[in-house]
Automatic annotation (TrEMBL), chain B:
Location in the cell: Cell membrane
Membrane topology, as annotated: Multi-pass membrane protein
Pfam families: BPD_transp_2
GO MF term list: branched-chain amino acid transmembrane transporter activity
InterPro entries in the record: ABC_transp_permease, LivM-like
Membrane-spanning segments: 6-22, 29-51, 57-75, 82-104, 110-126, 133-153, 159-177, 209-230, 242-268, 280-303
UniProt KW keywords: Cell membrane, Membrane, Transmembrane, Transmembrane helix
Protein name: Branched-chain amino acid ABC transporter permease
The species this protein was found in: Hydrogenibacillus schlegelii (Bacillus schlegelii)
Coiled coil: none
Length: 264, 324
């Protein structure tokens, strides 16, 4: 068994008197795609915010690539190779589509302010390479034709894909996707699942929050289920689909449809 | 891109032509020099406010630090103006670093108040540290700028010096904005969360742009001291800081030329008001200018928050527009 890439051990978060997440323990192995599901308010985004360093956990341990990351700042965690997208879009609206992706490359580039201002030859060279890489990713998510448009002119679905390209361009070991399919039409959603599967083959690991059960059942190797901040189940899709507590808490009547639709 | 190069070429040609057109009109040149000095400073503040989205209501302090460092080192210690200007930058950067470490942890209104407080403190120091700053009298007889044996003595030489610095400053700023460092700065304007999550050290980016904008103000201050020849604390008070913010708002953040445009509007309108208002209202005091610019800011904020650079310019005149 390979060493897990991400490990959560007894992770807890309290906001004042409210316990948002409690006793969450699971791991994600390299090149695995794990889905995080649960009703609204179950603590999924809070968990994401803890993993990516926006909050530190009140208790418990989060390890990434063999080292503890709880308490590190978000940019330090991103530098270790763990990036994310946001449920409510966080786009740099004053920049072009290409520039948004270039911000994602910040960790891979070196130019500091003085060298940039003087436009030293190596800066121009680095900039050229960066643009090539960013364009390549825009191409992969199908936005290359819009590269020089202001980001504010894109549709909601396109902005979702832009966030994915921006998180992926630095080739991090792991990407957290917070409801990536929300607002995508079925074709776009399927294209994104295909992209995730292809990236997994290239070595990327995913943890994603999603309500679109079809996408979850198709993409995920394993599913973690949260309810009221507690982890109530973890396992492969076929197991989760028939898990009695999950059905009661979350899936409800929808389950027959999904179990029928999913060949596993 | 081609049209943009063309625009820049026309603008530079115009700048070079001005002193040859107004050969015996020092008034126009002196206004242009003033626009250049304010424009240089406003360009720095535009980077901080317009591009990084961080407020500073105390930027006149850095203008003052540059001016006083240059005045002190050249008049009291006999340093060369060029060396004094560089030391002025170092002093301003050092002060900006210390202030930035504390103030840039604050956001929005709190940052505005902290920088405002910093500006007031620096003004008080300029006014009271008599041994160094000359107190309320300030410095007289600051020599003109010089490089080696060449002295920028007359209006035309000063014009060339100041606008040379402005063009250099704009070039530097434009280069920064289209680089890794600049994208980090612009990213935090829209989403600090996203910037951090992508590996941008947001605090570091804020500090970088704060230092850069302080350096612009410092250079403008040094050049101002050498051009005018005397300085006093009044030049570096809260009103100057607010005036600078007004220039940035008037010019807008859709292109790096916004600061210079804002400075141009401010200086030209200010001169126009001085000529017209006393004729219309003989009892008007000096405050009418502040009143007018206050109103102008309100009107711009309501009807054209992107400022002058946000208008649809004819292609040939478009000031190097970016996505912003």
């Amino acid at each position: 068994m390979t060493e897990p890439l991400l490990t959560l051990n007894g992770v807890m978060k309290r906001f004042g008197g409210v316990v948002a997440v409690q006793g969450v323990t699971f791991d994600v192995r390299p090149q695995e795609i794990v889905a995080l599901i649960g009703p609204n308010g179950a603590g999924k985004t809070t968990l994401f915010n803890m993993i990516s360093g926006i909050f530190s956990p009140t208790a418990g341990e989060i390890r990434f690539a063999g080292r503890p990351i709880h308490g590190l700042s978000p940019h330090a965690i991103a530098r270790l190779g763990l990036t994310r997208t946001f449920q409510n879009l966080q786009i740099f609206y004053h920049m072009t589509v290409l520039e948004n992706v270039l911000v994602g490359l910040n960790v891979r580039l070196k130019t500091r302010m003085l060298a940039a201002g003087l436009r030293l030859p190596r800066v121009a060279e680095e900039e050229r390479r960066a643009r090539d890489m960013a364009l390549q990713w825009l191409n992969r998510v199908g936005l290359a034709a819009l590269a020089d448009r202001p980001a504010a002119t894109l549709s909601y679905g396109q902005l979702k894909l832009l966030e994915v390209a921006r998180a992926a361009v630095s080739q991090p070991a792991m990407i957290l996707l917070d409801e990536p399919m929300a607002g995508l039409n079925p074709a776009e959603s399927q294209a994104l699942v295909r992209l995730m599967l292809a990236m997994r083959e290239e070595g990327t690991t995913f943890l994603f929050v999603e309500h679109d059960m079809e996408a979850v059942m198709t993409a995920a190797d394993r599913i973690v289920v949260l309810d009221y901040g507690r982890m109530i189940a973890v396992g492969p899709p076929a197991e989760i689909a028939v898990h009695p507590e999950v059905i009661r808490a979350y899936l409800g009547a929808e389950i027959e449809v999904i179990a029928g639709a999913h060949p596993q | 891109m081609a049209s943009r190069r063309w625009t820049i070429a026309v603008a530079v040609f115009g700048l070079v032509a001005i002193p040859f057109i107004f050969t015996d009109n020092n008034y126009v040149l002196s206004l242009m020099i003033l626009i250049g000095l304010f424009g240089l400073m406003a360009t720095g503040l535009l980077l901080l406010m317009g591009y990084a989205g961080q407020v500073s209501l105390g930027h006149a302090a850095f203008f003052g630090l540059g001016a006083y460092t240059s005045a002190y080192l050249t008049t009291r210690l006999g340093w060369s103006p060029a060396a004094a200007l560089l030391i002025g930058i170092v002093v301003s950067l050092a002060v900006a670093f210390v202030i930035g470490l504390a103030a840039l942890r604050l956001r929005e209104h709190y940052l505005a108040l902290a920088t405002l407080g910093f500006g007031v403190i620096m003004y008080t120091i300029f006014k009271n540290a008599k041994a160094i700053t000359g107190g309320l009298d300030g410095f007289f007889g600051v020599p003109p700028f010089s490089i080696g044996s060449f002295v920028f003595a007359d209006e035309r030489a000063s014009y060339a010096l100041v606008w040379g610095a402005v063009v250099l400053g704009l070039w530097f700023a434009a280069n920064v904005l289209h680089s890794r460092a600049g994208r980090a700065i612009r990213a935090l304007h829209d989403s600090e969360f996203a910037a951090e999550a992508l590996g941008v050290n947001v605090f570091r980016a804020k500090l970088d742009v704060f230092l850069l904008s302080a350096a612009y103000a410092s250079v403008a201050g040094s050049l101002y001291a050498h051009y005018v020849g005397f300085i006093n604390p009044q030049l570096f008070d809260l009103v100057t800081s607010i005036t600078l913010v007004a220039m940035v708002i008037i010019g807008g953040n859709r292109a790096i030329i916004g600061g210079v445009l804002g400075a141009g509007v401010y200086v030209v309108l200010g001169e126009g008001l001085k000529a017209v208002v006393p004729k219309l209202i003989p009892t008007a005091g000096g405050e009418f200018e502040l009143l007018f610019f206050g109103l102008l800011i309100i009107v711009i904020m309501i009807f054209k928050p992107e400022g002058l650079t946000g208008f649809r310019w004819p292609t040939a005149l478009r000031p190097g527009r970016e996505a912003r």
